[in-house]
Structures are given as C-alpha cells and as structure tokens.
Write a structure and sequence with these properties.
It is built from four helices and five strands. By secondary structure, it is of the alpha+beta class. The longest helix is centred in the middle third of the chain and has 28 residues.
C-alpha cells in the first residue's frame, strides 16, 4: 500500500492526503456535534482587544452567519481533496482538475455554512419580554378608559406572533379598534400607551 502511494504523482498524493485528513476531522466534528460538543465554540481570550473577536472563528458574518469557520474550512478541504482523487483519471490537465476541485470545495463550504446558519437560528431566544414592545404600535382590543382609571386590552405583533396585553393611558379614552403606541411598561403584563 505504501509502495502504491509512493508511485502516485505528487499532485495525486496531495489530493489523497487532503481527502483523508479532512475526512477524519469531519467525522470527529460530526461525532462531537451529535454528542454535544462544538468545535466552533468561543474561546475565552484574556485581555483581548475590543477589535479582535474572542472566538475560534473569523468574524465574517451578518447576523451570526459565519462563512469562514473551522467546520466550513474542513468542508472545503474535504470537497477539494475528494474531487481531486475521484476525477484524477478524467482530467489530463491538473490545472482544470484543480479548478474543478476548488469549485466543489467552495460549494461544500457554502452548504455547511448555510446549514450552520440555519441551525443557529434555532438557538435564538424568542421568549416574549414586554420590554421588546416599547415604542411599537398596537391596536386596541378592549377600550382603554381615560386617565389611568382602569385597564383596557391591546394586541401587538412581535416576531410574527400576536400578544394581548393590559393597557393604561394617561390621556383621553381610546375606543376599541384605535391605534396606539406603547410608551412604557407598568409590570410584566401591563403597558402605558398613547393614541396615535
């Protein structure tokens, strides 16, 4: 087996090494992910400057979308290496094979980055907190008496979900169907609104 490997052209040896090493790392990452460990987790750096992210990944992202990460780089090398190995006999020109391997590697990298982005979206905290609706507009569900005499009810939409809250107003009475702006909270279920 060693003789077979040594008799291969150098370029094919490189493709085999990249394919084998990246396959082992990819399998280890997959096992760690399913067990509950994450190789892309944050690394605490003591006294790290503000402009350098204290993370194991480069911060080329928009809203948490990491294109460059350990997992995506391993995926690129995996696609690159195995494409070179599998299509070695198909292409006589190593430049064309390298170009194809690069394109397939980029596709692997993009797919893994997209998959990780979709998984991270599941981690978002969508717990309703009344502080999140301050400054938003809402519709009156049950009339709100004037001058904080009693509470009425409003409906407000947050993250595509409708929430019903108790509401007070300091001004005049606001009838059912009226439009209001939430200006502050009283407690975890009651807000102060103003007519708009």
């Amino acid at each position: 087996m060693i003789e077979t490997f040594e008799s291969m052209p150098t370029t094919l040896q490189i493709f085999w090494i990249l394919a084998a090493v990246s396959s082992v790392i990819f399998i280890i990452q997959a096992i760690m992910t399913f067990v509950g460990f994450d190789s892309d987790s944050d690394i605490e750096l003591a006294d790290a400057p503000d402009e350098i992210p204290a993370s194991g990944d480069a911060d080329f992202d928009a809203d948490g979308f990491h294109l460059i990460s350990v997992k995506s780089i391993v995926s690129f090398i995996l696609g690159f290496g195995w494409t070179g190995v599998l299509f070695w006999d198909t292409f006589e020109n190593p430049l064309w094979l390298g170009l194809l391997a690069f394109v397939v590697g980029m596709i692997f990298m993009s797919l893994i980055a997209l998959l990780l982005f979709q998984i991270r979206k599941l981690d978002k905290d969508n717990t309703f907190r009344i502080e999140k609706v301050i400054g938003m507009n809402a519709e009156v569900y049950l009339r709100i008496p004037a001058a904080r005499k009693d509470t009425g009810k409003i409906n407000v939409s947050l993250h595509g979900s409708m929430h019903e809250l108790e509401a007070l107003t300091e001004g005049e009475e606001i009838p059912t169907g009226g439009k209001v702006r939430i200006i502050s909270k009283v407690d975890g279920e009651t807000v102060v609104v103003e007519k708009i």
